[in-house]
Amino acid sequence: MSDKVLMIAYHFPPSAEVSGALRTLGMARYLGESGQQVVVLTPRALAYPRRDPSTLGMVPSSCEVVRTFALDIRRHIGIRGRYPLWLAQPDRWSSWWVSAVRCGMRIVARDKPRVIWSTYPIATSHLIAASLHKRSGIPWIADFRDPVAAPVGQEKRLTAKTLAWVERETVRQASACVFVTQGARALYEARYADIEHGPFVVIPNGFDEEAFSGLAWAREPVPKAIGEPVVLVHSGVLYPRGRNPEAFFRAISSLLSDGRLVPAALRVILRASGSEPMFAKMVARYGLGDVVELAPGTDRGSALAEQSAADGLLLFQGSEFNAQVPAKIYEYFRVGNPVLGLVDEAGDTAALIRREGAGLTANILDSEAIANRLLEFVDGIRQASFKPISRDAVMHYSRRAGAAQLHELMDRLAPV
Question: Phi/psi at 393 (nearest 5 deg)?
Answer without folding.
Answer: -65, -40
